[in-house]
Amino acid sequence: QGGRSVSAYAVEFRTLAANTRWPEEAQIDVFLRGLSSTLKDELAAREVPEDLEELIELATRIDRRRMERSREERRLPDFNHAPLRALSQPPVALFQCLINDVLKDMINKFVFVYLDDILIFSPDRDTHVQHVRAVLQRLLENQLFCKAEKCEFHTTQTKFLGHVVSPGSVQMDEAKVQAVLDWPVPADRKQLQRFLGFANFYRRFIKGFSGVAAPLHKLTSAQVRFVWDVGANRAFTELKRRFSTAPILTQPDPSKQFIVEVDASESGVGAVLSQRASDNKVHPCAYFSCKLNPAERNYDIGNRELLAVKLALDEWRHWLEGARQPFLVWTDHKNLEYIRTAKRLNPRQARWALFFDRFNFTLSYRPGSKNIKPDALSRQYQQDCRSTEVPGTTTIVPPVLVLGANRWALERRVKSAVSGTVPIPDGCPPNCLFVPSSLRPAVLKWGHSSRLACHPGMTRTAFLVAQRFWWPTMSSDIRAFVSSCPVCASAKVPRTPAAGLLQPLPIPSRPWSHIAMDFITGLPRSRGNTVILTIVDRFSKLVHAVPLQKLPSAKQLAEIVARHVFRLHGLPENITSDRGPQFVAAFWREFCKLLGITVSLSSGFHPQTNGQVERFNQDLETTLRAMCSKNPPTWSSQLPWAEYSHNSLVNSTGFSPFQAAYGYQPPLFPHQERSASASGPAAFVRRCRRTWVDYRSRLVQNQERFTAVANRRRSAAPDYKVGDKVWLASTDVPLKGGLRKLLPRYIGPYSVSRVINPVAVRLDLPRSLRIHPVFHVSKLKPFVTSPLHPPPAAPPAPRLVEGGPVFKVNKLLASRRVGRGIQYLVDWEGYGPADRQLAVALPAVPAPLWSIGECRS
Where is the Integrase catalytic domain (predicted)? Predict the structure, then answer.
């Protein structure tokens, strides 16, 4: 439209077209549902358009209809650009889509449609006239026309999709049967494939089709030389004969009871789907036969008979699943009658039992003398199967086929490497092979990284390797190989004590010179408050708990601290906090810098750095939980009492925070204060200084004791240097890609860019992680290398396309709609989970191309 040619849309749609195939059901099974109707009409619409302009107009009409209807059964997914989307489908798929949409409320009620063939069926003439008029009127409204010379009206028998359809039965088209009978003997593989493809269309009418055609199917294989022998000619002739004598199949009636006759032999299974007609005789509806593969031939007779039932139910599940009446399954194996009530089943039978639960049927025993039809279908492969057996043997593997014991490829390589050329050192155990140095990495990889081993530890790897191989330095090599395995390093959590001995903060010399702050969130609303700001004096442990309506900004936090700390206790020298957004904001840093206050922030995902305030938060939450258990929204009224309780109670130093800060203990009762002796200001100051000195000495003693206890569960940190590579624990890293259960425990390796102190380092992290790069050493472990283990391959460098980097996509993990576009979670090829990113695809780029193409960074 508008003079724009289709070649202007330079987008690859072959992958999209593969996903827009029309989901049509099997032709026979669709129109057999309406064969009970008496009158039928067959209408032939005009041909599918092939001209480009007509095709674009047809695609536009389809898109306009799709926007007016909701998603229904057997509908394709909706896209944005109708002509481009529609043109990605073949014209026949477009036409089928349009016809189905036009007649959507009539299909399967009194209309069947396949491309340009429309079949209308009705129970009587008056209803039939109404149905025909309704269909023709609908076609006229949508500018679709039928050719009169191709239409057939008011008939009880008609040809539809290569079948002759009449009330209650269906048979093959005589013209098609005559074409099979007149087919010449195939001269090559291509001609044979054409014949089998044509004949296979009517296989449901031919009793034992797959067995008769088995010699012909063998000749279609490219691995078999095409030789038209006596067996192939006999099968060709027999197949033609069965076409000429094929029975008329009865139409399956869902309102009547189905009967499934099954039987199994040593070589195949056979089944017949039947129903009892008004003459009280059982008439066939369809035939089924299948050749057993070598594994299935090894089943015992009970499992083979059960397999026959399973395959037959699966073949006709569209009729049997959800049948109105319980159907019968006739078998000549009496033990199968008890399979649905058996107490003990083997794993195979248990899986089949779950499949059988989808059907409502009864297994009934029928003697083999009466079970003739399926018995003949199941035994048609016996001659072909017996030709591969060795007579007179009862073993699973015939002795004539046993040439020697199995040999592993790795074992052969080791043997050939030491055969007479490499001297074997002393100490090699018997039944063990000496491994030369060139093959040791391969042996270690087999003993540790193969599927047989699945990355065990050092002890188990050594046990597995030592069963067959040996070399003098095997123990040390295994230790080095396992410790340098990148898969183990990223997937396993170390069971050793956490790295990094306790590094306590320095003890202040006076109250309120060093403070710590944090927030308690997630509280129920109380007088409009949902947050508590906790401020702890690191010297006296005196606290202030400030209720807030919500988390404050950096500016609001500065005002709160000035009102509750600076006004009462003066300016502190240092403030310790976590890395919340208020504490890392530029305003807060500049505010503290102007006042001469140093700011100490905790390392990444290590709240123990700010342990004093974290511990008080736990105590405060416990106290409020106990005091407000009956009415939690009243916590704000109980907060002053909880603060007073903490400040007035004695802790492990023997002093209360109030006494350590002010030099005296607040009295419990008024008469205690009147009985206390008065003292002057100088005496009060001296008493406060003596209290602080005594209190600080006790703090030092407690700190030494706590450090000794904590270090029992810790180990010394490795001596990291700038440039060292380490693994980073992914416990708190926001990795993308679904559930964390099977995500790596460690990511990396990353380089150390700075050593801040003995227990904190700074890493060189990719920007995609978006986390603070300073970590405690307990979150890290060294990256170990070994000559026996090749280092991991470096990520592939991006290609430059139109001046920008392009990375190759490994997999699309998830997607979501953002505006008019779609956002994808992309796993890049050659990169780990930490590098996954959210990328946006424009609407003009079809989503299926993302799974195999390349995406911009």
Answer: 507-674
pLDDT per residue as tens digits for the range 786-811: 888 776 666 777 776 666 677 788 88
CB 125 within 8 A of CB 39: yes
Task: Determine the length of the chain.
Answer: 857
Query: Which residue's structure tokens are 């200084």?
Result: 689
Residue keyed to tokens 């008011």: 154
Residue-wise DSSP of 458-492:
HHHHHHHHHTTEE-TTHHHHHHHHHHT-HHHHHH-
Structure tokens at 390: 């060795």
- Domains of the chain by residue range: 6-160, 174-244, 249-386, 410-485, 514-664, 799-856
Tell me which of 29-43, 100-114, 137-151, 701-715 is least confident: 29-43
Phi, psi angles (nearest 5°) of residue 547: -75, 140
What pLDDT does 389 receive?
Answer: 43
Cβ atoms 798, 806 nearer than 8 A: yes
- Phi and psi based region of residue 322 (left: phi greater than 0; alpha: psi -120 to 50; beta: remaining): left
The type of residue at 359 is F
R_g of the chain computed on alpha carbons: 42
pLDDT at residue 680 greater than cutoff 90: no
799-856 and 174-244 share a CATH fold: no
**229-243, 369-383, 661-675: least confidently modelled range:** 369-383
User: Which residue is associated with the tokens 């002010």?
Assistant: 662
Tell me the pLDDT tens digit for each residue of 395-449: 444 444 444 444 567 777 887 777 766 677 888 888 888 888 888 999 999 999 9
Q: Which CATH number fits domain 514-664: 3.30.420.10, 3.40.50.720, 2.102.10.10, 3.40.50.261?
A: 3.30.420.10
| Share of residues in the chain with pLDDT > 90 (%) | 22
Distance, in Å, from the CA atom of 313 to the CA atom of 304, rounded to the nearest integer, reads 14
Does residue 813 sit in helix, strand or coil?
Answer: strand
Burial class of 135 by CB neighbour count within 10 A (0 to 12, 13 to 18, 19+)? buried
C-alpha dihedral, 112 to 118 to 121 to 124, nearest 10°: 150
Say if residues 467 and 450 touch (Cβ distance below 8 Å): no
Alpha-carbon span 154 to 124, nearest angstrom: 10
pTM of the model: 0.45
Q: Is the peptide bond before 792 cis (omega within 30 degrees of 0)?
A: no
* Predicted confidence (pLDDT) at residue 649 exceeds the cutoff of 60: yes
Tell me the CATH number of domain 249-386, given options 3.30.420.10, 3.30.470.20, 3.40.50.300, 3.20.20.140: 3.30.420.10
Please state, as a whole number, how many other Cβ atoms lie within 10 Å of the Cβ of residue 737.
14
Torsion of CA 351, 354, 359, 362, to 10 degrees: 70
Closest CA to 524 of 431, 664, 388, 625: 625
Quickly tell me which residue has 């405060």 as its tokens: 620
Residue identified by tokens 């248990």 is 350
Helices (H), 608-727: 611-627, 635-648, 657-662, 670-675, 681-711
Higher pLDDT pick, 396 / 120: 120
> What is the residue type of 79?
F
φ/ψ of residue 323, rounded to 5: -60, 150
Q: Which of 255-269, 400-414, 624-638 has the lowest mean pLDDT?
A: 400-414
- Domain 174-244 CATH class label: alpha beta
Residue 230's Cα: distance from chain center in Å?
Answer: 53
What average pLDDT does this structure show over 737-745?
77
Q: Rounded distance, CA 206 to CA 215, Å? A: 16
Instruction: Tell me the mean pLDDT in the region 708-731.
Output: 90
Highest-pLDDT range among 9-18, 51-60, 165-174, 632-641: 632-641
Terminal-to-terminal C-alpha distance of the chain:
35
Q: Are 552 and 582 in contact (CB under 8 A)?
A: yes
Task: Outline where 230-360 has alpha helix (H).
Answer: 230-244, 294-297, 301-315, 317-320, 347-356
